[in-house]
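Escalation from tier 1.

The customer reports that the assembly of two entities below gives different structure tokens on two consecutive runs. Tier 1 could not reproduce it. I'm attaching the input and our single run for tier 2 to review.
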Amino acid sequence: MGLLSPADQEKLREAFSEMTRAVRLLFFTQTLDCETCLTARQILDELPLLTDKIAIDEINVVIDADRAKRFGIDRAPAVVPVWRDEQGAEQDSRIRFLGAPSGYEFVSLVQAVMLVGGRPSILSAASLARLAAVDKPVTMQVFATPT
Amino acid sequence: MAFANPHITAYAVEATEFPDLVRRYQVTGVPKTVVAVGNEAVEILGALPQEAFVEQALTPFTTDS
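Tier 1 run:
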């Protein structure tokens, strides 16, 4: 039994069909003390059923702490979309989702996957020009709730 | 924004799951965005049109004083 309605599945299938590049979702999880890790995994598991362009790669933040640290992840659940460049090297999107991607966060996750999967940026030329001027490490944290 | 510039890392934080982060960044309403460079930070409350958001987020860090 899926978490998505047949209508939503169809919409997502159509959206994902526009992806030109495969995306892997690194799913950071832990076995103990993680109330929403299972929910997060269940939500993510819906996506590869809708397209062959999305795969899930589970990483335990306790057992594989070094790998988690490389992505700046110190808690679970967390999701990081990555892709492979033409040389086959893993490329970090530098987009991180902390917490189960349910409700509104799910919409944001789908948008992020589409972007990493080759959809053109929705940023205006003016915004992109502004962004190009950033030359030091910037961290942006957007706090949201599922509803 | 993170995808457009390699210097930027973006986190979408589910506020109800991480009360420690909510306390640390004094999140009293959502959406709230905290943009940080080193020890400096700027906060944006609520949602803004795209260009206004980019402007508010980056102006403190890209303009020479």
